[in-house]
Amino acid sequence: MAYNLLKGKxxxxxxxxxxxxxAWQIALKCHEEGATFTLSNAPxxxxxxxxxxxxxxxxxxxxxGADATSLEDLENVFNQSIEILGGKIDFVLHSxxxxxxxxxxxxxxxxxxxxxxxxxxISALSFHKVMQTxxxxxxxxxxxSVVGLSYIAAQRTFPGYNDMAxxxxxxxxxxxxxxxxxGFKKKVRVNTISQSPTIxxxxxxxxxxxxxxxxxxxxxxxxxxxxxxxxxxxITLFSDLTRKVTMQNLFHDGGFSFTGVSSELVEEIMKNVxx
Length: 275
Ligand SMILES: NC(=O)c1ccc[n+]([C@@H]2O[C@H](COP(=O)([O-])OP(=O)(O)OC[C@H]3O[C@@H](n4cnc5c(N)ncnc54)[C@H](O)[C@@H]3O)[C@@H](O)[C@H]2O)c1
Description:
This protein is α/β, with parallel strands linked by helices. Helix content is about 45%, strand content about 15%. The chain has one domain: Rossmann fold (3-Layer(aba) Sandwich), CATH 3.40.50. The longest helix has 24 residues, at about 115-135.
């Protein structure tokens, strides 16, 4: 059911690769809620992904290629988006992540400086660059909302998550630091959503993903949150109903982050012990 929560709002959505992507589901919901927006992804993803299908499903949204680590590319995304959409931007989704270590299964303790730097550059510093560019080009309206996607490995260790854990800790810190600056400067909100494990291209690439997907499902009182549910939450953050929420890392994980143990998990462990 749509509520027209984003009627008249203009946005930019980074990171939709295929229909499993969080950004894909978020784009569909933004469209359903009345927003107009441009879509952006890295040039290689535009060649390999299915983003044009998404664009067609969202009233022919324009797709703009950009490597999110390039300030020049980002400036082009903001300038073009304002022109195409006919005014300044009200919401931005940063749904970008990549670690060469995760991709090549290189253990955390064996990373090269170059690989580590690349993970941080793509997965966290690009969030800073997106906002830096938006500020420099004065691309956002007052009360605009910027959202990045995070994971609880920023606070607790999940070994397979590798250096992405450090990237998420940095991402969440950038949300606080930039949220402070942008709030005072232009009343712009900046938050991260810490989402349950979700089956996507980036998610499934993490070593042991299946086991911690099921572990989280059994531990969370409400079960894992799906990409579509994340999209619903995201809409509330882009809407005018959450104007005073900023600089937060918001857990969207069915209660996982605050649960110590569940009786279902204990029963399973005890069954194995007695066997
Ligand atoms: N899937 C999960 O379990 C999960 C859980 C919590 C948070 N997240 C976060 O959600 C976000 C989206 O990931 P996803 O799970 O939808 O996977 P995904 O693979 O669909 O999306 C990752 C996106 O990052 C883009 N990207 C990579 N390098 C880029 C670059 N240099 N410039 C621009 N774009 C680039 C990819 O093209 C892709 O579209 C990521 O930040 C991820 O860490 C995912």
